[in-house]
């Protein structure tokens, strides 16, 4: 199990490659969807997947974090913990899927998708399978089977690309057969593809859950796990709603649902450009949970030293990513078609919000290792309320820009709250001055990139002109904080003087 900074770097590299591949798939799909779907179709798809994110949190009810906590507890039988959680999730997921099939028409009516209720049934099936698979994937991480984790996820990606390619190729024929009569008929095919890929992924995971479910079921254990995990559920639900509220609430603020979904489609497409920040954050989180709970067996002093170093590197690399996206935004914008360009101003705000949420997640270790997970729920509710208020008040005045501002402001507030309150229960001397330095450095370089892009109209030339700004950041980071000798692969070729 990962328990050192070196193993964290290794696991982050593997999980990061996997996560980046999954997010890259999202990028590629955005390129396709923005050229096949209308802005309204893109909005419909984004709205449904936003709901799916929330329902996914409800259906896993904090079991993933609970799994890591209890499977590492002294005296607990690993097989029993895993089997108990698997059986619990299987039961709830099957019940959820049945509900989706039975009530697909009423739910479709509620979501203003009356003409395609089958999308709701498919969405419920996808969510149910994803919720169940979350623990087998966590099991692979716990066992250190990073390459197996990666192979299953990459297969999912390649299959999605293959089926999407076939869909694009045969779209003219589908129109000729009257299967696709209008632009709205294109959207269900996104869910058909996702459903097929989820089923195959579930089958590929079967060696890691089918036999393991025979390990028994401990009722007292599941009660203990649920007691630990329910605040994680609230944390995840409120936190997820904080990130998805824009895609759920925004279209509701329009009298005409089609206009609301069209505006949401523009916002959601450009949101995808900023997804590289989510790539790094999610990759970090995959390796971070096993790392943190593995550290509970070490001395508190050593644990805190590692946390400081991890936070320092996280801030440096996310600042670098932020700068890189802003320097090359004039090229990255071509991943969406011109009708979606009005949403480009949301990109820096979305990235800032994602970066601060990542910092907040790193800070959250204090309430996980001290079993005060209720604080996570409190912070998430605060952020959630702020997000909703900012969107409701700001959207009628500023449109989808209010959604981007809401994420940045609310994530910034809960980040500060977690740090301040965490000092009381599990004080860690994070390098605040160093963080402020990189924030100012990044802000200054981003400002210069804006000037360069303003005066150089050609996208390629402006990107080339901005590249030295990235080199400046790298040189400063290497000179000041980054020890190249401790980075795998790089240390084989570079000897720091």
UniProtKB/TrEMBL annotation:
Q: Please provide the record's keywords in A-Z order.
A: Cell membrane, Membrane, Transmembrane, Transmembrane helix
Q: Which InterPro entries match?
A: Poly_Biosynth_Transport (IPR050833), Polysacc_synth (IPR002797)
Give yes or no: UniProt keyword Transmembrane: yes
- Please give the Pfam families that the UniProt record associates with this protein: Polysacc_synt
Name the residues that span the membrane: 12-36, 48-72, 84-107, 119-140, 152-170, 190-208, 228-245, 265-288, 313-334, 346-367, 374-393, 399-420, 432-452, 458-478
A GO cellular component annotation in the UniProt record: plasma membrane
Highest taxon above the source species: Bacteria
Cited PANTHER family: O-ANTIGEN TRANSPORTER-RELATED (PTHR30250:SF11), PST FAMILY PREDICTED COLANIC ACID TRANSPORTER (PTHR30250)
The molecule here is called Polysaccharide biosynthesis protein
Q: Which organism is it from?
A: Porphyromonas macacae
Taxonomy, top ranks, is: Bacteria, Pseudomonadati, Bacteroidota, Bacteroidia, Bacteroidales
């Amino acid at each position: 199990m990962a328990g050192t900074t070196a193993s964290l770097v290794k696991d982050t590299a593997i999980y990061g490659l996997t996560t980046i591949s999954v997010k890259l798939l999202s990028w590629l799909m955005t390129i396709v969807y923005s050229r096949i779907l209308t802005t309204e179709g893109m909005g419909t798809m984004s709205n449904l997947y936003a709901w799916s994110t929330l329902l996914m949190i409800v259906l896993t009810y904090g079991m993933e974090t609970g799994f890591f906590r209890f499977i590492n507890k002294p005296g607990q039988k690993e097989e029993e913990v895993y089997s108990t959680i698997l059986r619990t999730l299987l039961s709830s997921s099957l019940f959820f899927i049945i509900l989706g099939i039975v009530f697909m028409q009423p739910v479709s009516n509620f979501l203003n998708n009356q003409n395609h209720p089958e999308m709701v049934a498919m969405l419920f099936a996808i969510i149910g399978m994803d919720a169940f698979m979350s623990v087998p994937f966590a099991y692979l991480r716990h066992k250190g089977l990073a390459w197996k984790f990666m192979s299953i996820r990459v297969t999912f990606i390649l299959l999605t690309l293959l089926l999407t390619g076939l869909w694009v190729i045969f779209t003219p024929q589908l129109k000729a057969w009257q299967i696709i009569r209008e632009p709205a008929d294109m959207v269900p095919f996104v869910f058909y593809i996702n459903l097929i890929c989820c089923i195959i992924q579930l089958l590929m995971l079967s060696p890691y859950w089918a036999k393991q479910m025979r390990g028994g079921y401990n009722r007292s254990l599941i009660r203990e796990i649920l007691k630990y995990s329910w605040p994680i559920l609230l944390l995840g639900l409120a936190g997820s709603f904080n990130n998805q509220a824009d895609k759920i609430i925004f279209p509701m603020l329009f009298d005409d649902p089609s206009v609301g979904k069209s505006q949401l489609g523009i916002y959601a497409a450009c949101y995808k450009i900023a997804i590289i920040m989510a790539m790094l954050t999610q990759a970090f989180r995959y390796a971070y949970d096993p790392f943190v709970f593995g550290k509970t067996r070490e001395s508190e002093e050593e644990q805190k030293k590692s946390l400081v170093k991890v936070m320092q590197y996280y801030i440096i690399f996310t600042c670098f990513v932020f700068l890189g996206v802003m320097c090359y935004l004039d090229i990255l914008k071509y991943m969406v078609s011109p009708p979606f360009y009005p949403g480009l101003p949301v990109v820096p705000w979305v990235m800032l919000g994602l970066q601060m949420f990542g910092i907040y997640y790193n800070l959250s270790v204090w309430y996980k290792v001290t079993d005060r997970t209720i604080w996570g729920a409190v912070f998430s509710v605060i952020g959630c309320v702020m997000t909703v208020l900012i969107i409701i008040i700001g959207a009628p005045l500023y449109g989808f820009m209010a959604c981007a501002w809401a994420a940045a402001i609310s994530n910034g507030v809960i980040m500060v709250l977690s740090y301040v309150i965490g000092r009381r229960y599990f004080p860690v001397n994070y390098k605040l001055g160093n963080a402020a330095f990189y924030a100012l450095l990044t802000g200054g370089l981003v400002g210069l990139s804006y000037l360069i892009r303003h005066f150089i109209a050609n996208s390629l030339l402006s990107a080339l002109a901005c590249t030295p700004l990235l080199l400046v950041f790298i040189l400063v980071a290497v000179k000041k904080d980054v020890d190249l000798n401790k980075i795998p692969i790089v240390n084989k070729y570079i000897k720091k003087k």
